[in-house]
Amino acid sequence: MHYAYPPRKDSAPPRFVPARQSRFINLRRSRAKLFAVAGLFFIALFYLLTRGGGSRHSTRHAPSGKPPVVIVTVIDEEDHYSAHYLESVRENRIQYAEKHGYKTFFPKVGDYELKGAPYSWTKVVAMRHALTKFPDATYIWYLDQDSYIMNPALKVEDHVMKPSRLEAMMIRDHSVVPPDSIIKTFAHLKGQDVDLVLTQDKDGLSVGSFLLRNGEWAEFFLETWFDPIYRSYNFQKAEMHALEHIVQWHPTILSKLALVPQGTINAYSKSAKGEEYRPGDLVIRFAECEKKSTKACEDEARPFAQTWMAAFRNA
Q: Which spans are transmembrane here (predicted)?
């Protein structure tokens, strides 16, 4: 067996250093090492923020506002709605968008890989897709297929998202999840700081109609909402309960959220669980009809289809 040679000893004896001076020298050396390590850490952090992991945020494209709004509606062709009804939903969005210079986006259930999660999660992926597809849009509006836009005169950026309008109507210091959640909406939130607009019904937050301001925060929000952990929790109401969870546990999300009266963007046709539609409201939703049947939804929607078509012709 071979052994390494021992290190060669220096022929000169080591210089004698008093114990007190030795401790001083060691302390000075340890401090120098500490400062060196700290300096390397901050240099690395600066690099990551400016050249590495933070580069996506620092160079993100600023939306130009063309189009001002994109309307996203996920179409479920597998849910036994008639082709006539689904076409009326598409035409409703298209006519409204053309009037105001907006765009529409109609992804389908099944377009995205959800890895076993319920199909209702499609809306979250569709919103992420819309941010990529329309990088210059100012706002993305998600609106379920169980609804019609009823008032063609109302523009989203004025009727809802204008800062002074938001400040006048947002519901402040209010339980996020009714009736008595201890987590409440911010009392002093400014309209210009709002990036997410939601409504509540008596069950909780509604995800059938909501507005999102395009930007870095929107990307963060959707990535958080679609986290695999939340999709795997098996929440009773899937993405809706996941949203309520993250709103209550993430102040970064709550700080950008405004609750507005339900009739602003999410009035119900008839329901004991929420605010009912009144003529002049922007939207009507047939929110509970699917519990009966898709035919019940179409029957409930039929008279309102005639109403919106007449309103758009006369606009």
A: 32-50
